[in-house]
C-alpha cells in the first residue's frame, strides 16, 4: 500500500517535471520553420537553383561563423573532433575511411558522406533521419562515438565564454551572449554548408554546356550506358537542365544486409513487442545491427529494411570508399556490385537486377563517373 | 526547429498493425466474425500469397523475377508478428504445370512457418488434370472451419470434357489454356459434381455463419477472352445467396479488383509475378469490369515488383477491410461501406483524389 502510494507520488513529480521541462524548452527554443524554401540561382554549370529555407537566409557573416563552428574541435569531449574531422575540406569533405572515427578513435557504423552538394538533398544522413542540414548538424555533437558531448549546453558554454563568438552571434542573429542557443549554431553551420556546392565538371560542360570535346569517347559511351543498359539514371537522376544525381529515395541493394538477415525475425519481433519509437542516433552509430536496418529505423516500414539514401555522384572519384558502410574500395567494385544485381535478399529494391555488362562497358562507366569531378572545389572562407 | 524525425507517436501509428501486416506480399485477413453486427466470434488473421507463375527454363534454372516475387512474399509472411493462423495460396504456382515448377514452388513454400491452404489454378492443372497436385500438394476442393468461419475452397478452373479431349498431348492442352485471347480457349467452370458437393457441404451451415469462399478465377463474369470468368458463376452465387455475409477471394486477375453482387463481396488478390492490365482497354469483346473498382495506377517498368504485391483484410463484425499492399507503389484500403452496400476505396474512390497514372518521369 505504502509503496503504491509512493510510486504514484513519484509519478506525479515525474509528470510535473516533464511539463516543466517542456515548458522551458519551448520558451527557450524559438520554433523556426525551415520547410518553406526559396531557390537561389547557383551560378554554377550543372547545378540547379539552391534551396534555402526562408527562415535561414544566407549572409557572408553567417557563413563565416558557420565555417568557424564547423572547424572548432573544442566542441567534442576530448577536444579532438570537429565537423571537419570526418567531412574534411582538404579531402572533398570526406575522411577517406570505411567508417568514421570520432573521439578516442571510436568508430561508428557508417561511411561519412561528403558535404559537397548535401544542400540539395531532401533528407540528411544515410537513412534520412533528419530533414535538413540544420537538423543534421546537432546530432553528431551528442553521439558518443562522434563528438561525445553530454549535452548541447557543453558547446553553448564554450561559445558564450568566447568573445569572438559572442560578437559574431550578435552580428548574425542579434542575440546577446546569454541567449545563444544550439539552434543558432545549427543555422550558421547549415548556411556555411550551403556554400559547399560544386558543378562545372567535364560532364556538365558536355551535357549542359554543349562542349562536345569535354568528355572522352569512353566517358561518352559510359554516359549512354548510364542512361540505358546500366540503369543508373533511374535513381541517380540526371535532369534536362541540371543534375544532382539522386532521386532522394531509399533503396535496398543488399549491402551489409547479411549482417542482419539471419536475425531479422528476432529483430522485428522485438521491435513489434517493445513498441519503441524510431531508432536513436546513438543506437544507429554504435550498434551494427541497428545500423543495417537502414531507412526502417526511421519509418518502421518493413519495405524500408536495409534501404539507404541514393547519394549524389558529383566528385565521386574523390570520395572513396563507397556505400553506407564504406565496404567497397573502388568505383570498379561498385560497378561490379550493380552488374551482379546487388546482394540477394528479400527486400532488394526491385529495380536492381543483373546487368550483363562487358569489361569494356564497366570501364566506360568508370570513365564517365570520373568525369563528374569538379575542377575546383569550394574552400573554407578566410 | 524541424526535427525531421518521426515522433514516437507517429512511429507507433505507422508500425501498429503494419508489423502485423504491412510487410506481406499477400493478403492478410483478420476476421471478427459472427454475422454483420454480431461480433461474437474470435478474431483471427490469415494471409494470402497468389499467382507466382514460377517458370522453368531448363535443368535447375527458373525465371529469376518470378522466383524473387514468391520469395519476397514468403520471407515477409514469416516476418509478421503476430503470425497469421495460416496462409491461403491462391493458385498458379506453376506456369505450365510442370513437375519441376510445382516441386520448385513447394520447396520455396516449405519455408513458410505457418500452415498453407491451397487453391489450384489453371496453370497448375491442365498438364496432368491436377494429378500431381492432388498427389503431392492438396485436394482440389474442400472445406474447413476456423474459429467460427466456414471456409470453402473451390476448383473453379474446370472446363468442358469435349475441350479437354480435343488436344493430342497434355502439353498442347496446357499451352492452349495458358493463352489469353485464344480463339481455341474454353471458359472456366465449377461444374456439376462440385456444385452437388458444395450444396451438401453447406447443408449443415447456418445462414448466420460467416462464409469465406476461396477460388482461383472470380466467381463472377468480367472478361471472357482472358477467362476473368466462371461460366456457372450465377449458379454458385445462388447457392450462396441464403448466407448473411459471404466474401469471395480469388486470384487469376493479378490486379486490384473488387465487386459486390447482392450479398457477396468479391476481392481479387495481387500476383507476386506480374500485373495484368484492365481488360477495359481491349475492345474485342465486351467487359464487365465492376464500376466501383478504382483501377491501379500504371506501374513503372523499371521496378520489377511494381504492380505486384499483397493485401490484407480486416473483417470486423463481418465488415471487411481489404488492405492492398503494393510493392514499390501506394497502398490501397478498400472497405465494405454500409451506406453504399459495397466495398469502397477509403482514399481514392473520388475521381479527384486518385493516383496519377504515372508519377515517375
User: Biggest interface, and residues per chain?
Assistant: A-B, 45 and 37 residues
| End-to-end CA span of chain A | 68 Å
- How do the SSEs of chain B run, as a string of H and E? HHEEEEHEHEHHEEHHHEHEEEEEEE
In whole angstroms, how far apart are the ends of chain B? 33 Å
Query: What is the ordering of alpha helices and beta strands of chain A?
Result: HEEHHHHHHHHEHHHHEHH
> From the alpha-carbon coordinates, what is the Rg of chain A to the nearest angstrom?
23 Å
Characterize the overall form of chain A.
globular
SS strand fraction of chain B: 15-25%
Tell how many strands the DSSP assignment of chain B holds.
16
What is the rounded Rg of chain B? 20 Å
Largest sheet of chain A: 2 strands, antiparallel
Oligomer: heterodimer
Mean pLDDT of chain B: 86
Strand order of the largest sheet of chain B: 6-5-2-1-13-14-15-16
> Counting H and I runs of at least 4 residues, what is the number of helices of chain A?
15
Stretches of chain B where pLDDT falls below 50 for ≥5 residues? Answer: 1-27, 32-39
Structural class based on helices, strands and sheet pairing of chain A: mainly alpha
Q: Tell me roughly what share of residues is in helical segments of chain B.
A: 10-25%
Fold blueprint:
The complex is a heterodimer of chains A (382) and B (361).
Chain A: H1 2-28, E1 37-40, E2 50-53, H2 60-70, H3 83-86, H4 133-142, H5 152-161, H6 163-173, H7 182-193, H8 202-207, H9 217-227, E3 250-252, H10 264-274, H11 281-286, H12 288-292, H13 296-299, E4 307-309, H14 331-339, H15 359-370
Antiparallel strand pairs in A: 1-2, 3-4
Helix pairs in contact in A: 2-7, 4-7, 9-15, 14-15
Chain B: H1 8-15, H2 18-21, E1 27-32, E2 44-49, E3 56-58, E4 61-62, H3 64-77, E5 86-89, H4 99-109, E6 116-118, H5 122-125, H6 131-136, E7 142-146, E8 149-153, H7 161-164, H8 170-178, H9 192-202, E9 211-215, H10 233-239, E10 246-250, E11 258-261, E12 264-268, E13 309-316, E14 319-326, E15 332-337, E16 342-345
Parallel strand pairs in B: 1-13, 2-5, 5-6, 8-9, 9-10, 10-12
Antiparallel strand pairs in B: 1-2, 3-4, 7-8, 11-12, 13-14, 14-15, 15-16
Amino acid at each position: 500500500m505504502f509503496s503504491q502510494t509512493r510510486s504514484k507520488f513519484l509519478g506525479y513529480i515525474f509528470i510535473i517535471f516533464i511539463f516543466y521541462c517542456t515548458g522551458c524548452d519551448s520558451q527557450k527554443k524559438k520554433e523556426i520553420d525551415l520547410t518553406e524554401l526559396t531557390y537561389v540561382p547557383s551560378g554554377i554549370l550543372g547545378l540547379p537553383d539552391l534551396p534555402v529555407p526562408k527562415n535561414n537566409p544566407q549572409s557572408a557573416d553567417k557563413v563565416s561563423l558557420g565555417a568557424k563552428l564547423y572547424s572548432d574541435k573544442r566542441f567534442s569531449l576530448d577536444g579532438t573532433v570537429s565537423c571537419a574531422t570526418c567531412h574534411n575540406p582538404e579531402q572533398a569533405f570526406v575522411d577517406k575511411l570505411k567508417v568514421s572515427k570520432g573521439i578516442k578513435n571510436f568508430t561508428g557504423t557508417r561511411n561519412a558522406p561528403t558535404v559537397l552538394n548535401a544542400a540539395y538533398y531532401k533528407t540528411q544522413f544515410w537513412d534520412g533521419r533528419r530533414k535538413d542540414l540544420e537538423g543534421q548538424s546537432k546530432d553528431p555533437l551528442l553521439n558518443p562515438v562522434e563528438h561525445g558531448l553530454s549535452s548541447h549546453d557543453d558547446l553553448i558554454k564554450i561559445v558564450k565564454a568566447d568573445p569572438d563568438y559572442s560578437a559574431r552571434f550578435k552580428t548574425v542573429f542579434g542575440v546577446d551572449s546569454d541567449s545563444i542557443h544550439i539552434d543558432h549554431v545549427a543555422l550558421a553551420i547549415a548556411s556555411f554548408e550551403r556554400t559547399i556546392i560544386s558543378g562545372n565538371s567535364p560532364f556538365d560542360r558536355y551535357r549542359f554546356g554543349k562542349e562536345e570535346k569535354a568528355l572522352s569517347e569512353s566517358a561518352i559511351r559510359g554516359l549512354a550506358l548510364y542512361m540505358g543498359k546500366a540503369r543508373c539514371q533511374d535513381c541517380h537522376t540526371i535532369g534536362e537542365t541540371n543534375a544532382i544525381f539522386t532521386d532522394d529515395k531509399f533503396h535496398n541493394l543488399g549491402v551489409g544486409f547479411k549482417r542482419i538477415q539471419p536475425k531479422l525475425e528476432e529483430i522485428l519481433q522485438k521491435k513489434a513487442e517493445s513498441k519503441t519509437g524510431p531508432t536513436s542516433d546513438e543506437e544507429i552509430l554504435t550498434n551494427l545491427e541497428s545500423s543495417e536496418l537502414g531507412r526502417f529505423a526511421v519509418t518502421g516500414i518493413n519495405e524500408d529494411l536495409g534501404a539507404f539514401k541514393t547519394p549524389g555522384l558529383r566528385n565521386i572519384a574523390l570520395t572513396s570508399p563507397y556505400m553506407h558502410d564504406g565496404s567497397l574500395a573502388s568505383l570498379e567494385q561498385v560497378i561490379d556490385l550493380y552488374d551482379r544485381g546487388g546482394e540477394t535478399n528479400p527486400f532488394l529494391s526491385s529495380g536492381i537486377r543483373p546487368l550483363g555488362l562487358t569489361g569494356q562497358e564497366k570501364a566506360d562507366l568508370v570513365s564517365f563517373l570520373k568525369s563528374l569531378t569538379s575542377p575546383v572545389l569550394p574552400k573554407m572562407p578566410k | 526547429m524541424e526535427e525531421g524525425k518521426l515522433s514516437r507517436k507517429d512511429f507507433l501509428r505507422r508500425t501498429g498493425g503494419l508489423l502485423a501486416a504491412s510487410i506481406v506480399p499477400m493478403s492478410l485477413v483478420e476476421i471478427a466474425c459472427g454475422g454483420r453486427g454480431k461480433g461474437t466470434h474470435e478474431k483471427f488473421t490469415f494471409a494470402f500469397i497468389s499467382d507466382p507463375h514460377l517458370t522453368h527454363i531448363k535443368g535447375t534454372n527458373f525465371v529469376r523475377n518470378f522466383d524473387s516475387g514468391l520469395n519476397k512474399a514468403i520471407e515477409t509472411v514469416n516476418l509478421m508478428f503476430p503470425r497469421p493462423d495460416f496462409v491461403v495460396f491462391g493458385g498458379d504456382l506453376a506456369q505450365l504445370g510442370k513437375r519441376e515448377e510445382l516441386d520448385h514452388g513447394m520447396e520455396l513454400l516449405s519455408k513458410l512457418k505457418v500452415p498453407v491452404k491451397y487453391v489450384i489454378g489453371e496453370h497448375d492443372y491442365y498438364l496432368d488434370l491436377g494429378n500431381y497436385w492432388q498427389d503431392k500438394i492438396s485436394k482440389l476442393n474442400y472445406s474447413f472451419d476456423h474459429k467460427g468461419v466456414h471456409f470453402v475452397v473451390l476448383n473453379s478452373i474446370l472446363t468442358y470434357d469435349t475441350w479437354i479431349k480435343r488436344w493430342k498431348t497434355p502439353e498442347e492442352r496446357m499451352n492452349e489454356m495458358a493463352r489469353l485471347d485464344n480463339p481455341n480457349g474454353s471458359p472456366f467452370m465449377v461444374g456439376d459434381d462440385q456444385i452437388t458437393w458444395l450444396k451438401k457441404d453447406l447443408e449443415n451451415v447456418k445462414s448466420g455463419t460467416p462464409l469465406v469462399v476461396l477460388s482461383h478465377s472470380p466467381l463472377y463474369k468480367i472478361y471472357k477472352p482472358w477467362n476473368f470468368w466462371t461460366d456457372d458463376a450465377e449458379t454458385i452465387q445462388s447457392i450462396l445467396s441464403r448466407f448473411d455475409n459471404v466474401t469471395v477471394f480469388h486470384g487469376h486477375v493479378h490486379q486490384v479488383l473488387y465487386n459486390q453482387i447482392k450479398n457477396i463481396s468479391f476481392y481479387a488478390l495481387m500476383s507476386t509475378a506480374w500485373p495484368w492490365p484492365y481488360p477495359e482497354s481491349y475492345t474485342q469483346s465486351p467487359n464487365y469490369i465492376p464500376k466501383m473498382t478504382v483501377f491501379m495506377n500504371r506501374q513503372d517498368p523499371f521496378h520489377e515488383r511494381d504492380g505486384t504485391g499483397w493485401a490484407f483484410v480486416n473483417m470486423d463484425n463481418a465488415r471487411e477491410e481489404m488492405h492492398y499492399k503494393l510493392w514499390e507503389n501506394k497502398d490501397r484500403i478498400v472497405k465494405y461501406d454500409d451506406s453504399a452496400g459495397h466495398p469502397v476505396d477509403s482514399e481514392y474512390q473520388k475521381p479527384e483524389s486518385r493516383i496519377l497514372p504515372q508519377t515517375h518521369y
